[in-house]
Design a protein that fits this description.
Layout (H helix, E strand, L loop, with lengths): L7 E7 L7 H12 L3 E7 L5 H11 L3 E4 L4 H7 L2 E2 L1 H6 L4 E4 L5 E4 L2 H13 L7 E5 L3 H12 L4 E5 L3 H14 L6 E3 L2 H6 L2 E4 L23 E4 L8 H8 L3 E3 L2 H16 L5 H10 L2
Parallel strand pairs: 1-2, 1-3, 4-6, 7-8, 7-10, 8-9, 10-11, 11-12
Antiparallel strand pairs: 3-5, 5-6
Helix pairs in contact: 1-10, 1-11, 2-3, 5-6, 5-10, 6-7, 10-11
Length: 280
């Protein structure tokens, strides 16, 4: 049980941040692991990323999760950066190194791959992937899949330059070869895995990131959107016999990676998944 005066404090920063499920996920994890920490949310607007890291040092916070619009700012302001942060230009996790220095990490790539394995029992090695979108989330997915051995990551985006940038991330992460390339709608039908890494379908938006009829039974689809838990696109895919999953597992597993970076303890993943599903 978390005490009234916890030993350490960790937090999520961003704008908005108070809607985040991260406090529920991490506080459940701390309680399950018997770690006397508490996790909260701080609203930090654009331009405040560097100042937030200075406050982290002064207050000796145990860790920070970072959401939009601060991921690039904190990556730049940290003392050291993991390899994928340098390539992605974004960090979603700040880890104190114990000497006042702060390390920028990105747990989204590992979180996506772990969620894919948990939800679909699918190993990325050798997969043909159609990736919809080229923003920060898409680039993290491209990195994670390519690093885990995906044979092909075809990126579909409204702007060719964005697609090329995300495809280059896949190439940078690959152990060998160049799996990233700009894709077309033909790649959706040919893919083993189709990932929506855009915000299309979030909230009250009932539009789809691509025509559901491009997919068929036997394919796996992941929509990184998790509010709502079932988007109109996911519902349409399931009616077509496509195995379709939302982004909640990615949220839980990226949090689990952050938990382990901060605490050095094994994350209670199932507890975190249940807390993610329960919400705030």
């Amino acid at each position: 049980m978390i005490s009234a005066r916890p030993e350490r404090v960790a937090a999520v920063i961003g704008d908005p941040a108070r809607h985040s499920r991260s406090p529920a996920i991490h506080n459940a994890a701390f309680a399950a692991a018997g770690i006397d920490w508490v996790f909260t949310a701080f609203e930090v607007p654009a331009g405040g990323g560097a100042a937030a890291l200075e406050a982290m040092r002064v207050l000796q916070l145990a860790g920070l999760s970072v959401t939009m619009p601060l991921k690039a700012e904190v990556a730049e302001a940290a003392d050291s950066r993991d390899a994928e942060v340098d390539v992605l230009g974004a960090a979603n996790c700040i880890v104190p190194l114990g000497d006042g220095r702060l390390r920028a990490a990105n747990t989204d790539a590992a979180g996506f791959v772990a969620g894919l394995r948990a939800d679909a029992g699918l190993e990325p090695d050798g997969l043909r992937v159609a990736l919809l979108g080229a923003g920060g989330a898409a680039r993290a997915v491209a990195w994670g899949l390519a690093a885990a051995g995906a044979a092909e990551v075809a990126v579909l985006n409204r702007t060719p330059s964005g697609a090329q940038a995300a495809a280059a991330v896949a190439d940078a992460a690959a152990q060998s070869g160049n799996p990233g390339r700009v894709g077309t709608t033909d790649d959706i039908a040919a893919a083993d895995l189709v990932v929506n890494a855009t915000s299309v379908g979030m909230g009250a938006d009932s539009s789809a990131p691509c025509d559901p009829t491009l997919l068929r039974g036997g394919q796996v689809a992941v929509d990184l959107v998790y509010e709502p838990l079932e988007t109109a696109w996911l519902a349409a895919l399931r009616r077509r016999g496509v195995e379709a999953h939302n982004g909640l597992s990615m949220l839980a597993f990226q949090a689990a990676v952050a938990f382990e970076l901060w605490t050095g303890a094994a994350a209670p993943v199932e507890v975190m998944r249940r807390a993610a599903l329960a919400g705030r």
